[in-house]
């Protein structure tokens, strides 16, 4: 478990924009991984980049770190571009792309000390402080080859914090973690965000982004499908859906017909699906009870934002993101 | 796991305080640390020190000397001849292999471990990381050759003896001069060994596969050796990276000639510059999509 009482103080930003991506495009062969994307992240903001696998999130973040060169467009980080400043663009920037990777034949400490060499050194005592933060102090002298996935993830966070960043870029940080690890990772990201750090968080988990982020860009097949605040996203969200199971589904359907703002349909698995405004759905359920239709089950299908995410990204379409992902992965090989 | 309270990471520095920019030395230190932590590197160095000893003992104990090889006729009872016999064998494929074990792996292992994204998202440029890796591989090659040469010369002289050497023109070379010439002969293989180091680096960067980076230089060396043995291709032969491995022959003739040594230096220099130039451009321009 990550400690809950640690409150870091990071350098505050003076520039208005931490990240300014303008019209960036990147193709791998015939596959367009990122298509004319523009993203602006203000200093101090917690910004989410959301999208299904293959949407272009990781490619975008790799371009930000200079790991991939964009075909067209400009990426400015704290008002510097790679062409102007080279690796100096990464001053004040840290994070990891996908799962963090380290040298398995080195200990965790040797890995971190080696990376600090590449950073030009750190102030005394910082390493030990950060090891306490990520709760790795007692295992840091073991070889990384023996680390669990969660430990490597925390070592990745430690490697990032060693740079005392102003901008922290995290690509699906909770990916592959167990529920406790996910909870701890989210808590850490929230605390870091609360400390004034700018956080750029990539995820395919709507809940995670909704919980942490102020603004969000949703990508689908390399293009921007939505850009705005979480509040704006909520206003676009469809009515919540519920799966309803009763002792008499036929009567439930008939009763549903008397509630015009509620839609009751039968799904392929013989249950009923109810959608509509929350108050109207409540009234419909009360009507079922009054009509002696017993409820056997009543569960939410997905949150409104999840439903909107799926609508925007068309992930259920057989011709949609899945095929794009396969083609992109093939191109990267 | 227990929650631990850590001191706040307070920072007195002003906003966007400039970070110290690491130089080539910092990247080089990290590369050397990584190399020192690898058993394979230690095993190669240990092998370079220990393997010549049983080889010398075995050849010294043979009743029939290997007459069909250079200096083989005298190898069983002359320490200098035995040293040169081992040198001739080492240049066939051993030196390209030993140097490629590190040079062929030094870039590709980052792909294998997925760590390019780890090191290239710090404050050290791709160029500095490239040169740090290249210097590490080159330094390893030099150390390897020094250890192999020293172990072979010392063990040969101690086990077989330091009798005067019969040169390639049939002349007798006094022990003191022979020691200098044998040492110079081993030293002359440094340039082609470094040439193979650079070739292995190129293959490591290009293939992104440690197995290819290590094996391909050896295979290419063997092919060059075969091509060099063919008749009627003198112009091509002088351009092969394996030809300078034989340049030391001129040191042991009467009169001595050093033309092949100079030509070999130029050829090895050209191979090294071209290999490193191509590797550098590939390294600078590649997209890191894996890991």
Radius of gyration of chain A: 23 Å
Could you tell me the number of beta strands of chain B? 2
The largest sheet of chain B has its strands arranged as 1-2
Instruction: Please give the count of helices of chain A.
Output: 12
The computed structural class of chain A is alpha/beta
Helix content of chain A: 25-40%
Which percent band covers the strand fraction of chain B?
under 5%
CATH topology of the largest domain in chain A: Rossmann fold
First-last Cα distance of chain A? 37 Å
Order of strands, main sheet of chain A, comes to 5-6-7-3-8-9
Contiguous runs where pLDDT drops below 50 for at least 5 residues of chain B: 1-17
What is the averaged pLDDT score of chain B? 90
Domain count of chain A: the total is 2
Structural class of chain B: mainly alpha
Which sheet architecture does the biggest sheet of chain A show? 6 strands, mixed
**What is the overall number of helices of chain B?**
12
CATH class membership of the largest domain in chain A = Alpha Beta
How many domains of chain B? The number is 1
Question: SSE order of chain A, as H and E?
Answer: EEEHEHEHHHEHEHEEHEHEEHEHH
Describe the secondary structure blueprint for this structure.
The complex is a heterodimer of chains A (333) and B (291).
Chain A: E1 17-28, E2 31-42, E3 46-50, H1 57-64, E4 72-77, H2 82-85, E5 93-96, H3 108-119, H4 126-133, H5 149-161, E6 167-171, H6 179-194, E7 198-203, H7 206-212, E8 215-220, E9 223-229, H8 230-236, E10 241-246, H9 249-257, E11 263-266, E12 272-275, H10 278-290, E13 295-300, H11 304-313, H12 321-332
Parallel strand pairs in A: 3-7, 3-8, 5-6, 6-7
Antiparallel strand pairs in A: 1-2, 1-4, 8-9, 10-12, 10-13, 11-12
Chain B: H1 24-36, H2 39-50, H3 52-61, H4 79-103, H5 108-113, H6 116-119, H7 126-159, E1 165-166, E2 172-173, H8 175-188, H9 190-207, H10 210-229, H11 234-237, H12 259-285
Antiparallel strand pairs in B: 1-2
Helix pairs in contact in B: 1-7, 2-7, 3-7, 4-7, 4-8, 4-9, 4-10, 7-8, 7-9, 7-12, 9-10, 9-12
């Amino acid at each position: 478990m990550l400690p809950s009482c640690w409150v870091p103080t990071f350098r505050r930003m003076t520039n208005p924009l931490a990240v300014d991506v303008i019209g960036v495009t990147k193709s791998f062969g015939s596959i367009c991984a990122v298509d004319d994307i523009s993203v602006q992240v203000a200093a101090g903001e917690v910004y989410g980049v959301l999208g299904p696998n293959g949407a272009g999130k990781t490619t975008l973040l790799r371009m930000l770190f200079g790991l991939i060169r964009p075909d067209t467009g400009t990426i400015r980080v704290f008002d510097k571009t790679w062409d102007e400043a080279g690796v100096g663009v990464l001053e004040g920037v840290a994070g990891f792309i996908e799962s963090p990777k380290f040298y398995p034949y080195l200990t965790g400490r040797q890995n971190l000390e080696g990376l600090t060499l590449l950073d030009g050194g750190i102030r005394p005592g910082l390493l030990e402080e950060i090891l306490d933060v990520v709760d790795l102090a007692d295992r840091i002298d073991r070889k990384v080859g023996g680390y669990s996935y969660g430990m490597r993830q925390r070592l990745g966070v430690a490697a990032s914090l060693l740079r005392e960043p102003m901008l922290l870029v995290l690509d699906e940080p909770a990916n592959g973690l167990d529920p406790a690890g996910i909870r701890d990772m989210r808590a850490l990201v929230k605390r870091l965000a609360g400390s004034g750090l700018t956080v750029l968080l990539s995820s395919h988990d709507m809940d995670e982004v909704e919980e942490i982020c102020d603004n969000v860009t949703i990508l689908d097949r390399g293009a921007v499908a939505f850009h705005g605040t979480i509040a704006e996203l909520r206003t676009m969200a469809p009515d919540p859906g519920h799966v309803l199971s009763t002792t008499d589904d036929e009567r439930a359907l008939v009763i549903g017909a008397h509630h015009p703002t509620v839609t009751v349909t039968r799904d392929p698995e013989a249950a009923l699906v109810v959608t509509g405004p929350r108050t109207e759905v409540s009234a419909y359920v009360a009507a079922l009870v009054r009509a002696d239709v017993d409820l056997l089950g009543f569960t939410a299908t997905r949150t409104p934002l999840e439903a909107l995410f799926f609508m925007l990204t068309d992930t259920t379409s057989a011709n949609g993101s899945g095929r794009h992902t396969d083609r992109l992965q093939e191109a990267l090989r | 796991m227990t929650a631990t309270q850590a001191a706040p990471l307070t920072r007195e520095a002003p906003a966007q305080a400039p970070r110290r920019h690491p130089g080539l030395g910092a990247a080089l230190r990290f590369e050397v640390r990584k190399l020192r932590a690898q058993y394979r590197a230690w095993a190669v160095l240990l092998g370079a020190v220990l393997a010549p000893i049983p080889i010398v003992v075995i050849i010294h104990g043979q009743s029939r000397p290997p007459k069909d090889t250079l200096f083989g006729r005298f190898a069983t009872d002359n320490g200098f001849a035995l040293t040169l016999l081992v040198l001739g064998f080492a240049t066939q494929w051993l030196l390209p292999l030993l140097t490629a074990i590190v040079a062929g792996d030094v870039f590709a292992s980052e792909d294998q471990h997925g760590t390019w994204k780890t090191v290239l998202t710090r404050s050290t440029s791709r160029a500095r990381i490239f040169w740090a890796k290249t210097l590490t591989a080159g330094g390893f090659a030099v150390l390897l050759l020094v250890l192999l040469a020293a172990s072979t010369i010392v063990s040969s002289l101690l086990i077989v003896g330091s009798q005067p050497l019969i040169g390639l023109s049939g002349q007798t070379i006094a022990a003191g001069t022979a020691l200098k010439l044998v040492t110079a002969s081993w030293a002359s293989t440094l340039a082609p060994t470094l040439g193979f180091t650079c070739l292995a680096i190129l293959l490591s960067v290009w293939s992104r596969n440690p197995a290819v980076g290590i094996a391909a230089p050896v295979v290419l060396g063997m092919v060059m050796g075969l091509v060099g043995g063919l008749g009627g291709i003198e112009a091509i032969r002088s351009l092969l990276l394996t030809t300078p491995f034989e340049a030391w022959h001129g040191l042991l003739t009467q009169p001595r000639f050093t033309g092949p040594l100079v030509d070999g230096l130029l050829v090895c220099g050209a191979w090294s510059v071209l290999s490193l130039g191509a590797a550098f451009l590939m390294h600078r321009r590649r997209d890191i999509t894996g890991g």
